[in-house]
């Protein structure tokens, strides 16, 4: 039943015919592109996705196998042939390091390059961008080799011999020259290179090797568009920080603790990070390289061997330029400024400089020269080389050029100057210089030339003193030439020379180191060989002159004419005598002829005029040289109106007497020939009055001249208290004969005449007594009586009453030319007490005022009256006055 029912069911179903669909066959021209696409897609996936993926995984595994604890992780990557992008992201390699518990890591956050491949069809290499960000690089160079990221590369094979290297270098250079001649570009002909952008940011680079360790952070390096097909300049921006630096400047000194200590003491170490910033433009990088820009460096602090530290606050370089065209290298800068330099030296010494400047520096490799428009420094100070204090306000030079730098350097400087130099030494004292200027400087290893040298405001002050020992307002030298064997120059001109010399009680000059006193044996030896050395010196000097340093000077001249020219003067204080001598003088004239150290026998012309007061003149004219060890030549010395009262301490030492009044005149001619002294000295002492001061000296001198000094003085005087002595000079210069016997003969002859006259007067009795009485009466009758000039307490200047009376005295002296006047100032007891130690000088001003007033008048012979007026030594009295007498 089941079968029947099932059959019925089947029959009851209707069957319909199937409809069959036939697809249209695809044409071949459509199948081929699709197949090509599938194949290319498969190749792309295989080459640019699958292969790089497995390649990177292989690199990671390979790096891990290079050492225990090493690992490499590449976080992401991109490789696109269509866009030309190649990128690596988050690359981190870690590896263990010796002596450090933590692993070291190197890598980069991003490394990428983007190249426009389509530009190749236009024969252009177009790099759209290059970027590296977050790079960390560590490199170590050791005896085992170069270690990078924990992988050690063995050292290269031994270098070829030097000769082989030289040959290869020459061949390479020749090949390079040939290639350069053929083509000035590194690209194939017709091709160009374009780089749109290069950016390196936040990169850290560390490097270590024997004697060197440094860490550099590249904060930014970026460039603008570069296109070799155009002349457009490429902007470059660089910001880099040197974070760590250690340089061992010592050579290999072995091993051990001492070697390690020596190495530590010879290290240059960067104390704090320093940042360098560059803003520049570059052009023709593939042909004729040209770079120009600005560089700045932040504060730098270094530890330097032998120096505790060197630092500066900033370095700015403007207009830096570099070019390389046709094998000629050029470099330069517009300005360089270095600020606040400080050097800390051992033993608490230091030097600091506010600013150092260079301007317009140009260097040419082919010409082997460098030119600098200006060099300057400002605000130098410090304590160096035993000087507790040394400072220089400014130094500058202009138009400096050095040629033949690599072979025989030759320098030329148009101008150089320094201003406000001050150096203090604990023993030598203080040296100060207002300014020093040089022009026309030329220098090389064999010769130096300077057109002119001028200095102003020079002074030398002894230690612990306020008054300079010597000062000079102005000094100038022209046409200077110097070499290892000679020095020549034009005329030396100066003015404003002031010296303040004090002889101490022990005979030494204040502020000048005491000289060593020669022993008596040396002195006797020198005296014994004096003549022998003098006779031999002429021949010796001739034979040795070829080896001596020769000095030739056109002359020396004191400038006296011109507005604002200060006086040249000297102040002499002698504390070795009692009382102390204080003398001021002026140099009115000083000129010399040519000076030649190789021919001193010919002598040097000299003209010198000195004034010790308003009326005194000391003149020296002649020609004096040097023959062997002794002077050679002749000189005339003339002394006029020298007030000897101021030099009483020296008179007391010489003859035991002091002068109450008296003026000295000297007319002398002195010659020295072959060591023999000759000439004559005529001495005239006007209106003199002596008084004994040292009996011991008087007695010694009396024995020397075989008569009492008092007798000799009284005999030598004439009616006006004038003494005239003629002293001949002769003998060897080492033991001169000053003609004392001739002086004694003069005294004896005059004494004989005086005694004869006295004898005749007394013998003609009673006529002799009558003659004596008449002579005395005549002297009293014709004697001129003058009134004293009375002064109020502490009054110095002349009153109208004083002047009226002095006019009368002047009229009388003008008519009677034989009259000589003495003015003797007196200070009252009250004045002496009020003036204290200054009473002598204050009272002397009264006598000087009287002489100054009368010196304006002339006598009937048209001669000034000053030569017949003598000022006495001041003294104390009952009242203030000036005693006048003839």
What would your notes on this structure say?
With 886 residues, this protein is of the alpha+beta class. It is elongated, with a radius of gyration of 51 Å. Helix 10 (740-763) packs across helix 11 (767-782). The strands form two sheets. An eight-stranded antiparallel barrel has the order 12-13-16-17-19-18-15-14. Strands 38, 39, 40, 41 and 42 form a five-stranded mixed sheet that branches. The N and C termini lie far apart (197 Å). It has 14 helices and 42 strands.
Strand content: over 45%
Residue stretches low in confidence (pLDDT < 50, at least 5 long) are 176-183, 516-523, 533-539, 541-546, 747-783
**Oligomeric status of the shown chains?**
single chain
Count of individual beta strands: 42
**How many strands, what sense, and barrel or not for the largest sheet?**
8 strands, antiparallel, barrel
For the termini, the CA-CA separation is 197 Å
Shape: elongated
Structural class, by secondary structure, is alpha+beta
Mean pLDDT: 82
Strand order of the largest sheet: 12-13-16-17-19-18-15-14
How many H/I helices?
14
Percent helix, as a range, is: 10-25%
């Amino acid at each position: 039943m089941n079968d029947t029912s099932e059959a019925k069911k089947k029959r009851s179903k209707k069957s319909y015919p199937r409809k069959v669909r036939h697809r249209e066959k695809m044409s071949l021209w459509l199948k081929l592109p699709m197949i090509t696409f599938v194949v290319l897609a498969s190749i792309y996936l295989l080459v640019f996705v699958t292969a790089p993926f497995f390649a990177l995984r292989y690199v990671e595994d390979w790096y891990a196998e290079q050492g225990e604890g090493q690992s490499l992780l590449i976080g992401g990557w991109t490789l696109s042939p269509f866009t030309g992008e190649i990128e690596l992201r988050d690359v981190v390699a870690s590896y263990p390091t010796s002596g450090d518990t933590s692993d070291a890591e190197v890598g980069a956050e991003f490394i990428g390059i983007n190249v426009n491949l389509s530009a190749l069809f236009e024969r252009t290499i177009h790099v759209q961008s290059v970027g590296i960000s977050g790079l960390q690089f560590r490199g170590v160079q050791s005896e085992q080799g170069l270690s990078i990221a924990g992988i050690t590369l063995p050292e290269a094979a031994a270098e070829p011999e030097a000769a082989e290297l030289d040959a290869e270098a020459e061949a390479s250079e020749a090949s390079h020259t040939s290639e350069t001649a053929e083509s000035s570009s590194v690209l194939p002909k017709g091709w160009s290179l374009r780089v749109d952008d290069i950016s390196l940011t936040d990169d850290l680079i560390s490097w270590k090797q024997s004697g060197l360790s440094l860490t550099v952070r590249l904060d930014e390096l970026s460039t603008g568009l570069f296109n070799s097909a155009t002349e457009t300049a490429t902007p470059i921006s660089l910001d880099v920080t040197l974070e760590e630096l250690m340089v061992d400047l010592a050579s290999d000194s072995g091993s051990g603790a001492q070697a390690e200590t020596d190495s530590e003491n010879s290290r240059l170490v960067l104390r704090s990070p320093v940042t360098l910033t560059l803003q520049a433009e570059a052009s023709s990088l593939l042909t004729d390289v040209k770079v120009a820009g600005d560089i700045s460096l932040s504060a730098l602090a270094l530890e330097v061997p032998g120096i505790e530290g060197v630092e500066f606050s900033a370095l700015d370089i403007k207009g830096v330029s570099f070019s390389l065209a046709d094998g000629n290298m050029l470099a330069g800068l517009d300005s360089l400024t270095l600020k606040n330099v400080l050097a800390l030296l051992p033993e608490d010494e230091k030097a600091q400089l506010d600013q150092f400047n260079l301007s317009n520096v140009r260097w040419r490799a082919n010409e082997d020269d460098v030119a600098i428009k200006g060099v300057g420094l400002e605000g130098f100070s410090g304590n160096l080389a035993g000087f507790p204090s040394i400072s220089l306000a400014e130094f500058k030079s202009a138009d400096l050029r050095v040629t033949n730098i690599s072979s025989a350097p030759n320098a030329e400087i148009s101008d150089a100057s320094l201003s406000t130099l001050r150096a203090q030494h604990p023993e030598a004292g203080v040296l100060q210089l207002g300014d020093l200027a040089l022009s026309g400087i030329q220098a090389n290893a064999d010769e130096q030339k300077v057109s002119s040298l001028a200095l102003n405001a020079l002074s030398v002050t002894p230690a612990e003193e306020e008054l300079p020992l010597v000062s000079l307002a102005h000094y100038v030298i022209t046409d200077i030439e110097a070499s290892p064997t000679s020095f020549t120059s034009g005329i030396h001109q100066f003015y404003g020379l002031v010296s303040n010399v004090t002889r101490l009680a022990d005979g030494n000059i204040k502020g000048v180191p005491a000289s060593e006193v020669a022993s008596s044996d040396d002195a006797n030896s020198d005296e014994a060989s004096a003549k022998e050395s003098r006779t031999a010196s002429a021949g010796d000097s001739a034979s040795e002159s070829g080896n001596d340093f020769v000095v030739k000077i056109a002359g020396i001249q004191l400038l006296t004419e011109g507005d604002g020219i200060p006086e040249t003067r000297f102040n002499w204080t002698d504390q070795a005598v009692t009382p102390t001598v204080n003398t001021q003088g002026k140099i009115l004239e000083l000129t010399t002829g040519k000076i030649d150290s190789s021919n001193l026998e010919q002598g040097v012309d000299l003209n010198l005029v000195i004034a010790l007061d308003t009326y005194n003149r000391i003149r020296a004219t002649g020609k004096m040289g040097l023959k062997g060890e002794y002077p050679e030549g002749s000189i005339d010395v003339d002394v006029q109106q020298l007030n000897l009262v101021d030099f009483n301490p020296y008179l007391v030492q010489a003859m035991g007497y002091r002068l109450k009044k008296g003026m000295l005149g000297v007319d002398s001619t002195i010659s020295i020939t072959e060591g023999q002294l000759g000439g004559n000295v005529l001495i005239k002492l006007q209106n003199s009055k002596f008084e004994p001061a040292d009996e011991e000296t008087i007695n010694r001198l009396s024995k020397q001249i075989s008569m009492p000094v008092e007798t000799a003085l009284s005999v030598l005087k004439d009616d006006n208290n004038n003494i005239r002595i003629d002293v001949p000079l002769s003998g060897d210069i080492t033991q001169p004969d000053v003609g004392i016997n001739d002086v004694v003969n003069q005294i004896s002859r005059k004494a004989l005449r005086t005694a004869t006259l006295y004898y005749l007067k007394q013998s003609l009795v009673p006529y002799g007594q009558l003659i004596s009485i008449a002579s005395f009466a005549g002297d009293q009758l014709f004697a001129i009586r003058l009134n004293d000039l009375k002064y109020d307490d502490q009054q110095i200047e002349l009153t109208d009453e004083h002047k009226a009376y002095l006019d009368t005295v002047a009229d009388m002296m003008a008519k009677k030319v034989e009259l000589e006047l003495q003015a003797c100032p007196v200070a009252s007891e009250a004045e002496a007490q009020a003036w204290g130690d200054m009473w002598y000088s204050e009272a002397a001003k009264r006598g000087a005022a009287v002489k100054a007033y009368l010196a304006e008048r002339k006598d009937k012979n048209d001669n000034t009256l000053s030569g017949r007026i003598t000022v006495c030594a001041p003294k104390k009295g009952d009242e203030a006055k000036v005693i006048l007498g003839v």
